[in-house]
Amino acid sequence: MSTSYASKKILVVPLDWGLGHATRDIPLIYEILNAGCEVVIAAEGKHAALLQQEFPQLTILPLPGYRIQYAQKGWFFGWKIMQQIPKILKSIRYEQQWLQEVVKTHGIQGVISDNRFGLYHPDIPCVFISHQLLIKTPFGGVTERILQKLNYKYIRRYSACWIPDFAGDNNLSGILGHPKELPPHTSYIGCLSRFQPREGVKQLYDLLVLISGPEPQRSNLEKLILEQIKQLPIRALIVSGKPGTPQQEQITPNVRQVNHMNAQELNEAMLASGMVLSRSGYTTLMDLAKLNKKAILVPTPGQSEQVYLGEYLMEKGYFYSLPQDKFNLGKALEAAASFPFRSFQHEQDMEQYKQAVRKFLMC
After folding, report:
1. Which of 194, 87, 183, 181 has the alpha carbon at shortest distance from 127?
2. Residue 2's pLDDT is what?
3. DSSP one-letter code for 182
4. Is 86 helix (H, G, I), strand (E, B) or coil?
5. Backbone φ, ψ for residue 160 (5° rounding)
6. Which of 48, 62, 129, 305 could form a disulfide with 114 if both were Cys (CB 3.0 to 4.6 A apart)?
7. How far apart are CA 96 and CA 214, in angstroms?
């Protein structure tokens, strides 16, 4: 351990857009703690609860999130987000003022901001994490260029920008994390996943279904799965993505449904499954890559980032993807069985982020 950063106190703040930002920050927090530094977390609601469960010994400061509201229909998803930009800008101004005070009162010596735009400070090193340098929208060209310009305006105020992906052609984020022009001080830090691979795990399930995302699309996919899976001769586990309600049900003799699993249980379930079906949320993709799992992706309707990632990763051969409006579980399993899955894991260093963390702590 280097004494030059042994006593540093680092603030880690995830975006409140789904639980993925909180879960992908878990390996970063462990690495900071392993280096002998202190960690303070800022979050609210289910994000704070998840991180408190993982790190019961750490201080969690209350900080309001951007509290994005989602459209009821997939077609209006992008427009609904655009309408909330003034509210997001107001939140950014608030968190900038909040940070100035917290640095003084808590002695913060560095910040890791996972996609929150106002957590930069002139006197301490501050890192911005994002896999979306180019932000996809349903409206395409002009809108995406405007959002990218706004995105870079804030990123440039940070000491560094970390992209949780790999440089080069073999990557998970495509044009999102590999635009033509990158902000200064940008580096690729590899996958961020809290899960750990293990050899020789007995296969208990033919299919693990991970249902997640905003309503009503979470429930829409759950309904499709439950209607179709009963007819299929497979062993399956369905995780419904409803934390806080520890309920389970035996759908058929070979199909079990649970509302939620903790990190260790989910890690084991993924290792014990021949195939995974999930949304194409970026943190889930990093988990799948880390564990080298075959997967069927069903992007959240209207969420341009997920639609793009599903299409991009299928073209690369890493995962099989299909839209929800054409979803048929039996046909999807047949297609996936003959899909020439290309392994992502053996091409990359899954511990690359640790070097970035240690370098940051030396600043």
Report:
1. 183
2. 42
3. P
4. helix
5. -155, 155
6. 129
7. 27
CA-to-CA distance for 106 and 154, rounded, in angstroms? 24
How far apart, in Å, do the first and last CA atoms of the chain sit?
15
Which residues on adjacent β-strands are paired with residue 275?
207
**148 close to 172: Cβ distance less than 8 angstroms:** no
pLDDT digits 0-9 by tens, 17-56 = 778 899 999 999 999 999 999 999 999 988 898 899 899 9
Spatial separation of the C-alpha atoms in residues 158 and 92, rounded to whole Å = 14
Contact 177, 269 (CB under 8 A): no
260 vs 361, residue with greater confidence: 361
**Coil vs helix vs strand at 112:** strand
Q: What is the pTM of this model?
A: 0.91
DSSP string, 303-348: -HHHHHHHHHHHHHTS-EE--GGG--HHHHHHHHHTS-PPPSGGGS
Query: How many angstroms separate the CA atoms of 357 and 363, rounded?
Result: 10
Locate tokens 């409803």: which residue? 242
User: For residues 137 and 173, what is the distance between their CA atoms, to the nearest angstrom?
Assistant: 15
Residue type, 238: I
Rounded to whole angstroms, the Cα distance separating 269 from 164 reads 24
Longest dimension (CA), the chain: 61
Q: Percent helix, strand and coil across the chain, each rounded to 5?
A: 40, 15, 45
From residue 270, alpha-carbon distances to 13, 57, 263, 282, 342 in Å are 27, 28, 11, 16, 18
Burial (Cβ within 10 Å: 0-12, 13-18, ≥19) of residue 122? exposed
